Amino acid sequence: MKKCLPRTLPFAIFGMFVLASSPAFALSDSPFSLGPKVGLNYSNLTGDVSDEAGYKLGFAGGAFFAYTFSDWFTLQPEVLYSQKGAKATEERLGEERTETISLDYVEIPVLAVLTIPTQSRLTPKVFVGPAFGFLLSAEDKREVDGEERGSEDIKDALKDYDIGVVLGAGLDVKVGPGAITADVRYNFGVTNIVDDEDDNDTVRNGVFSFMVGYAF
């Protein structure tokens, strides 16, 4: 299953995008909408981690599907490729030492979206929901004064999955047959990602994200 996820994800996203472009989904009175979205992650690790651990920039992108039950409520599952992790930098013996933990996930948020109807093209929204992540790769890279001094694959030390809770707010702007959608969200992990029964450390993901997409 772990090998199949990276291979099938691009086809699933492409299929959703093609379906979104079909006339059936372009109808304004249809309760269905979907489309692509991309964004930036600003991630960190919390719990039993170094005091120097700071935030790391990463990419997020994929597709979403939404079903509108009423003017106020929408259910929105998403399939995203999400780069998480943390970055720590310290000065030691006159050298700048940097350690970067890079964690790549396929993530599936399932969001309950509360929309605020307006008389304009702008529709504010707030949302909450669980997010289920599946680990694709994990790397620990070390640098000294900007030069790489080694890296290590740490995937075997981590759990293959992660569960988080997403909170966020955004705005939809009607443009053409659909709408530009933008949001800011925070995904706080509730799962200890360390996979070692003899290790009492608890480490969780924490990610701020800014996402932009187009809903057909």
Please count the helical segments. Answer: 2
Helical/strand content category: mainly beta
Q: Tell me the name of the CATH class.
A: Mainly Beta
Counting structural domains, the number is: 1
How many E strands? 10
Please estimate the helix content.
under 10%
Sheet bearing the most strands, described? Answer: 8 strands, antiparallel, barrel
Short description:
This protein has 216 residues and is mainly beta. The protein contains 2 helices and 10 strands, in the order H-H-E-E-E-E-E-E-E-E-E-E. It has an 8-stranded antiparallel beta barrel with strand order 1-3-4-5-6-8-9-10.
Secondary-structure topology with pairs:
Blueprint (H helix, E strand, L loop, with lengths): L3 H17 L2 H4 L5 E16 L5 E2 L1 E13 L4 E20 L2 E21 L6 E23 L2 E7 L7 E15 L2 E12 L13 E13 L1
Antiparallel strand pairs: 1-3, 1-10, 2-4, 3-4, 4-5, 5-6, 6-7, 6-8, 8-9, 9-10
Any overview of this molecule?
- With 216 residues, the protein is mainly β.
- It is built from 2 helices and 10 strands; from the N terminus they run ααββββββββββ.
- It has helices at 4-20, 23-26, and strands at residues 32-47, 53-54, 56-68, 73-92, 95-115, 122-144, 147-153, 161-175, 178-189, 203-215.
- The protein has an 8-stranded antiparallel barrel with strand order 1-3-4-5-6-8-9-10.
- The chain has a single domain (4-215), classed as Porin (Beta Barrel).
- A hairpin with a 2-residue loop joins β8 (161-175) and β9 (178-189).
- 10% of the residues lie in helices and 66% in strands.
